[in-house]
Design a protein that fits this description.
- The chain is an alpha/beta fold.
- It has a single domain, classed as TIM Barrel, CATH 3.20.20.220.
- The chain is built from 11 helices and 10 strands.
- Strand 7, helix 6 (about 190-200) and strand 8 form a beta-alpha-beta unit.
- Helix 10 runs parallel beside helix 11 (about 305-315).
- The model has no long low-confidence stretch (mean pLDDT about 95).
- The chain binds flavin-adenine dinucleotide (FAD).
- Flavin-adenine dinucleotide (FAD) binds next to strand 5, helix 5, helix 6 and strand 8.
- Its cofactor is FAD.
- GO terms for molecular function: FAD binding; methylenetetrahydrofolate reductase (NADH) activity.
């Protein structure tokens, strides 16, 4: 079923979460171990992230450098199918611009359709370490809005490969990302929202936000979206804090602020076990307030670790 239909058909806040494919070479068991404890809270859908291939250089004994590619976390499409097969729950594969040309994107979408997957979260994708800024793949897309247009076209039976013209069109429900604290490259929030509105105008049916630790940021963002005429459901993304290190890593990876009150509480903790307990409490309070506010779903970034999310969900769902 489509994410948008789950939202429309429910009169209460839904539960959903995101997982990462395991590192290349590891078994799918780590995914199942992360999902098993969360199934009792009846997630409506599970997102699976997509990771761009990266480059590295191997030095040969003769001194020559060879450029090699590796996708550290492969398997998004297959993992979605495996999750649906095992748990009978809908999955939302993330689809990214980076690393794919239009034909490869089309093939991925055809595979997803063939597997009975009805949802995609359409994203530009992160830049890779070896690049100073995001660089589109030759024949691929620069922005999520362009990728979204391709998905919308396939939904209307317009394919890159002319042989496919007479096939039954796909019918993907399309979600996109939004940033309560603005995307780090955008000159200001209003400009970022202008492009968010473009994604909605092109066919995005809902928005999932970047994580935030201060609900006020979400409420202001949601109001600004509504003022700009963005009417689709906005799903808050939440992450339970779990280590002291995250005081610096989360702001640098995700370009978000940590509220001073949370920083002060984390600094008081003697060890990471205490930080985890604090993170659960903070995220549970955020969740309760967001449910009261009437958000369509609470979407947790589990990052492959279910313990904290399951303790929060146990208080709410
Ligand atoms: P876009 O919507 O393309 O926006 C990127 C930037 O360009 C913004 O600053 C925007 O304001 C600007 N912009 C947009 N359109 C235009 C235009 N037409 N002209 C000029 N400027 C424009 N990354 C992954 O690699 N894999 C994942 O699985 C993944 N999952 C994510 C899930 C969520 C919920 C979120 C919030 C992020 C996720 N990311 C993922 C990270 C995301 O790919 C990065 O934040 C990326 O830098 C931006 O992606 P986007 O889809 O928001 O890009």
């Amino acid at each position: 079923m489509k994410v948008i239909d789950y939202i429309r058909q429910s009169d209460k806040t839904l539960f959903s979460f995101e997982i990462l494919p395991p590192l290349k070479g590891q078994s799918i068991k780590s995914i199942f171990d992360a999902i098993d404890p969360l199934m009792e809270f009846k997630p409506s859908f599970i997102d699976v992230t997509y990771h761009r291939e990266e480059y590295y250089y191997k030095q040969h004994p003769n001194g020559l450098l060879e450029k090699r590619t590796i996708r550290k976390r492969p398997g998004t499409v297959g993992i979605c199918a495996a999750i649906m097969n095992r748990y009978h729950v809908d999955t939302v594969p993330h689809l990214i611009c980076g690393g794919f040309n239009k034909e490869e994107t089309e093939n991925a979408l055809i595979d997803l359709h063939f597997l009975g997957i009805e949802n995609v979260l359409v994203l530009r994708g992160d830049s890779i370490k070896s690049e100073p800024a995001f660089t589109p793949t030759e024949g691929g897309h620069q922005y999520a809005s362009e990728l979204l247009e391709q998905v919308a076209q396939i939904n209307n039976g317009i394919y890159q490969d002319e042989i496919l013209e007479n096939r039954t069109p796909t019918d993907f429900c399309i979600g996109v990302a939004g940033y309560p604290e603005k995307h780090f490259e955008a000159p200001n929030l209003n400009t970022d929202l202008k492009y968010l509105k473009l994604k909605v105008d092109l066919g995005a049916e809902y928005i999932v936000t970047q994580m935030f630790f201060d609900n006020q940021k979400f409420f202001e963002f949601e109001q600004k979206c509504r003022d700009m005429g963005i009417t689709v459901p906005i799903i808050p993304g939440l992450k339970p804090f779990s280590s002291k290190r995250q005081l610096t890593t989360l702001p640098s990876f995700f370009h978000i602020d940590i509220p001073q009150e949370l920083v002060a509480e984390v600094e008081k903790c003697q060890n990471n076990e205490q930080v985890r307990e604090l993170g659960i409490e903070w995220c549970a309070q955020q969740s309760k307030e967001l449910i009261k506010h009437g958000v369509p779903s609470l979407h947790y970034y589990s990052m492959g670790k279910s313990r904290s999310v399951s303790k929060i969900a146990a208080q709410l769902f």
